Amino acid sequence: MAMRQTPLTCSGHTRPVVDLAFSGITPYGYFLISACKDGKPMLRQGDTGDWIGTFLGHKGAVWGATLNTDATKAATAAADFTAKVWDAVSGDEVLSLAHKHIVKTVSFTQDSNCLLTGGNDKLLRIYDLSNPEAAPQEIAGHTSAIKKALWCNNDKQILSAADDKTIRLWNRSSMEEVKTLTFDTSVSSMEYVADGEIVVITYGKTIAFYNALSLELIKTVEAPAPINSASLHPDKDFFVAGGEDFKLYKFDYSTKEELESYKGHFGPVHCVRFSPDGELYASGSEDGTLRLWQTAVGKTYGLWKCVLPEDLGAENSEQLYTPTPEIKA
Amino acid sequence: MATPVSVLRLPKGPDPNSRGFDPKSPRFIALCRTSISSSAASEADPEQLQREQHARSVLRENFLRCLLSMSNKKVQFHMHEKVKVEATFGASDIDVLNFQVSDLHTPIGVQKEALIRCQDVISVTFDV
């Protein structure tokens, strides 16, 4: 019996959701943080989408958000010219790092001791969180606003994407540029997959996969619409992408074939990420919602329940919530 | 026609009255460091822990009583950037993130009603 995807909608934000990130798998499950233009990033339980808390303190739109691996710390980048570090268990603000312009991106090293930031002042900054009073190390080079910066190669290198249509690879120790990729158009997103050293880059209608160490192109895939974000499944068999036509697309990574597309959002999709166990992916949209989508549609996982035909109508079956089928326009 | 996948319920949304991070959740209880770190349960003896907990309760109670006694009194806020303003204290919100005040005297005039952000406040002074 064919099953149709039922996305789980997480409401609560009042403005577009522009970034989201998952933690690693912790003894308490895994977690999801969402960055929103309403200035109030939220923490949710990753497998159910249940709201856990809201980080209060930013005075402007939050452009970037991330969690450390064990979800004990969160970091956010905002239009109020600060990046903040939070205790992700209590929700308290731990550090506020002043910048000279809008901060767009934040990233923790694996040991959570350093924070990388980037934004409209075109500089990459590295903060030592055990010594936050000290001035951060600064890396200059980009000629316009940085939109994404990530640690890679075991935190020995940094990948940054900017509005100057370049992606640059830097050595952390020497703070020097190692390699640059130049594009004809602005890069809309960048995701780093540590296991396998792959970088997923999106621009225009293209989803491109590069080797993170050499910045050699592995393959590109064309989507039916301009794409804002893409994510590769941990097992590297699928990837998902979303963009301006409001839909989520699922592709086979090996064959590049488009497998599925899903409607659901009421606005462009700004960010999409696979969960650390690959069982679901989350999307954030201009419509102010996050949606969770199953990788294997119909499987029992989180709030989704597989119902066999013989169970429907059984006397002692649980009360299940079956959403009314959406009317196709 | 394909059947939509059933769900047990919808994801829980935010609580309108609080910022969340439930202190009763197992994760919070296991991981949360309190603002004044307590001795690790394994290191200290139970008697010392009990004294410490008692001290915490006393401090917390004093703080809450201070907030209560400030109610409707004229208070002076000493804030960052050498700001000193006077106002009539109203109330605090549950997470002590904002103070509600009336007749806030500022260099640009008197604000009838205002919210003061607690993280901007260094100290509050008032006559008992």
From TrEMBL, chain A:
UniProt-listed Gene3D superfamilies: YVTN repeat-like/Quinoprotein amine dehydrogenase
Keywords, comma-separated and alphabetical: Kinase, mRNA processing, mRNA splicing, Receptor, Repeat, Transferase, WD repeat
GO molecular function: kinase activity; RNA binding
Family annotation (InterPro entries): WD40/YVTN_repeat-like_dom_sf, WD40_PAC1, WD40_repeat_dom_sf, WD40_rpt
GO CC terms of this entry: SMN complex
Domain of life: Eukaryota
Family statement drawn from the similarity comment of this UniProt entry: Belongs to the WD repeat STRAP family.
Protein name: Serine-threonine kinase receptor-associated protein
Organism whose genome encodes this protein: Stegastes partitus
Name of the gene: strap
Automatic annotation (TrEMBL), chain B:
Gene3D superfamilies: 2.30.30.100
PANTHER family per the UniProt record, alphabetical: GEM-ASSOCIATED PROTEIN 7
GO biological-process terms attached to the record: spliceosomal snRNP assembly
GO cellular component, as recorded: SMN-Sm protein complex
The organism's place on the tree of life at top rank: Eukaryota
Protein name as it appears in the record: Gem nuclear organelle associated protein 7
Domain (SUZ-C): residue spans on this chain: 1-25
Disordered as annotated region, ranges: 1-24
InterPro entries, A to Z: SMN_gemin7, SUZ-C
Pfam family, one: Gemin7
